[in-house]
Design goal:
Helix content: under 10%
Radius of gyration: 14 Å
Shape: globular
Number of strands: 14
Structural class: mainly beta
Length: 171
C-alpha cells in the first residue's frame, strides 16, 4: 500500500485525502467564507492510522499557536478525540479513535462548545469564550505548530464548516 500522502478512492464517502503524519497537510488561505467567529460547527469523517506518533494529530485547525485563539479538532497521543476553542476551552474523549471511519464534530454555540463522535455528544458542554484566529490560514491534517507534533496520519474525508451550531439533530 502507498504510505505517502495524496488522494485515495478509499474514502468514507467516495475519495479522501491521505496524510502520512510527516509532511502532508492542506493549507487554505483565510477567507470570509471560512469560519472566523461566533456560532459554528466543524465536522469531518476521519480514519486515524494506529501507527500515528503525533502528540496531537489534528484534523482541522484554525488557531494561533502563540495565543491559542481559534479552534481545532483532532486526536491526542492516546488517539482519543479532542476539540479546543481558544483561547482556553478543551474537551477530550477517553476512548481511542478506532482504525475504522469515525465522524468527529466540534460545535460552538456562542457560549459553549461540544465535541461529537459519530453523532453522539461526548461529555457535558464546556463554557467557552471564542476568540477568532488571525493567522491567515486554515489547516487540514495539521495544527498551527511548525513541527510534526500535530500531523495527522490516516485519512480525512468530507470536511465541513458551518456558520451555525447544528446541534445533535444536525450533526
Amino acid at each position: 500500500s502507498d504510505t505517502n500522502g495524496g488522494w485515495t478512492e478509499d474514502g468514507c464517502l467516495g475519495g479522501a485525502l491521505r496524510f502520512d503524519g510527516l509532511d502532508d497537510w492542506v493549507r487554505i488561505a483565510q477567507d470570509t467564507a471560512l469560519l472566523t467567529g461566533w456560532p459554528f460547527t466543524v465536522s469531518a469523517w476521519v480514519k486515524l492510522d494506529g501507527t500515528c506518533t503525533s502528540d496531537w494529530p489534528e484534523v482541522v485547525a484554525d488557531y494561533e499557536a502563540s495565543t491559542w485563539n481559534g479552534y481545532c479538532l483532532g486526536g491526542d497521543s492516546a488517539h482519543a478525540a479532542f476539540a479546543m476553542v481558544g483561547p482556553i476551552a478543551l474537551i477530550q474523549d477517553t476512548n481511542a479513535i478506532s482504525d475504522g471511519w469515525t465522524r468527529l464534530a466540534l460545535e460552538y454555540d456562542g457560549a459553549q462548545m461540544r465535541l461529537y463522535r459519530d453523532g453522539a455528544t461526548l461529555g457535558d458542554p464546556i463554557s467557552a469564550v471564542f476568540t477568532p484566529a488571525t493567522n491567515g490560514y486554515l489547516a487540514i491534517g495539521n495544527g498551527q505548530d511548525a513541527g510534526t507534533s500535530e500531523r495527522w496520519k490516516g485519512l480525512i474525508d468530507d470536511v465541513r464548516l458551518y456558520r451555525a451550531a447544528l446541534g445533535t439533530n444536525g450533526i
